Amino acid sequence: MTAQTAQEPGTAPLCAAVLEGPVSHAISRVARLHRIAAGRVLRDLGLHPGQEFLMMHLWDSGAVRQSELIKSVGLDPSTVTKMLQRLEQSGHVRRRPDPCDRRASLVEATDASCGLLVEVRRAWGELELQTVNGLDDTERTELARLLGKVETALCPETGPDGRDGRDGQGGGSGGSGGAECETGYKGPGGNC
């Protein structure tokens, strides 16, 4: 693929530094814009991008060890700890000692956060409509299929804990990570 075929007509030409990676450049731009759009729809809920993935995991699984939560979202432990502190302050999350191992902490969604589940679903629906606006059903299906292939191709770059094996940093933004390179929300469960 050439730089010319990777860009839409009427857009500025790609800079020389990205001529060898026009698809990677496009993915980076789209990911940045998607995160900004997610920030807009989540702001009204009092959430920052990425916090909804923690909440989705907790709504699905119920109480989990903080170490397991960190592994499942594939983020740096300090990032998850800061997210949990904010979510705890807002009343969405509760942390308590694990009765089986007092050195470990259990994290769970509060009953009060169940109303947030409905709002997060609504926000993600709104984000989905904005993201695929202008695509027909066939194009939406094809885009999801192709992004799945891209995700699978990138998956070997992460280690079993969802972290980049080369430098020890997190293996993705927001919802990526984990040994199975899974992303996103699978459905209702947990406390709500």
What is the compact description of this entry?
By secondary structure, the chain is mostly helical.
Task: Record the SSE blueprint.
Blueprint: H1 3-6, H2 22-43, H3 51-61, E1 64-65, H4 66-73, H5 77-89, E2 93-98, E3 101-109, H6 114-132, H7 137-154
Antiparallel strand pairs: 1-3, 2-3
Helix pairs in contact: 2-6
Description:
The chain is mostly helical and 192 residues long. 49% of the residues lie in helices and 9% in strands. It has 7 helices and 3 strands. The chain has helices at 3-6, 22-43, 51-61, 66-73, 77-89, 114-132, 137-154; strands spanning 64-65, 93-98, 101-109. A 3-stranded antiparallel beta sheet has the order 1-3-2. A hairpin with a 2-residue loop joins strand 2 and strand 3 (101-109). The longest helix is centred in the first third of the chain and has 22 residues, at 22-43. 23% of the residues are buried.
List keywords for this structure.
single chain; 192 residues; mainly alpha; three-stranded antiparallel beta sheet; 3 strands; 9% strand; globular
Shape: globular
Average pLDDT works out at: 80
- Structural class comes to mainly alpha
* Sheet having the most strands: 3 strands, antiparallel
Helix content: 40-55%
Order of strands across the main sheet: 1-3-2
SSE pattern: HHHEHHEEHH
Low-pLDDT regions: 1-6, 164-189
